[in-house]
Amino acid sequence: MTLLDREVVFLMLQFLNEANEAKYKDTVHKLEKDSGYFFNMRYFEDCVNNGEWDEADSYLSGFCKVDESRYSTKIFFEIRKQKYFEALGRHDYARAVEILQKDLKVFSTIDEERFKEMTLLLSLGNFRCVGYFFCD
């Protein structure tokens, strides 16, 4: 896009943010993501703090790819790993398997051993007790 296009998108984002209406919030974040011009760190941080892992992953993917750098790989891995752990914590094993196959499989080529360990967590009754002597 040209400089003029960037300026127009930025003005649109500014206008929608200043309108301060809830109905525009989704539009603002979609435009940020789709244009790739403005990464709203506060929005991303809110997604992470609120456990909105799918939205955090989706929003971040508008700005970088999983394998773009070691930093992008790390943050995507951490987001998806947390989503997996939360599914395990809820004993939602079907969802955990889905996350493992769909979201975490891409990391198996980067760290095969860690991927195997994460897969083994499915077989534990309480994955939080790994490495501890006294667990119920």
TrEMBL record:
<dbReference type="Pfam" id="PF21889">
    <property type="entry name" value="TPR1-like_2nd"/>
</dbReference>
<keyword id="KW-0677">Repeat</keyword>
<keyword id="KW-0853">WD repeat</keyword>
<dbReference type="GO" id="GO:0006355">
    <property type="term" value="P:regulation of DNA-templated transcription"/>
</dbReference>
<dbReference type="InterPro" id="IPR006595">
    <property type="entry name" value="CTLH_C"/>
</dbReference>
<feature type="domain" description="CTLH">
    <location>
        <begin position="37"/>
        <end position="95"/>
    </location>
</feature>
<dbReference type="InterPro" id="IPR027728">
    <property type="entry name" value="Topless_fam"/>
</dbReference>
<dbReference type="InterPro" id="IPR054080">
    <property type="entry name" value="TPR1-like_2nd"/>
</dbReference>
<protein>
    <submittedName>
        <fullName>Topless-related protein 4</fullName>
    </submittedName>
</protein>
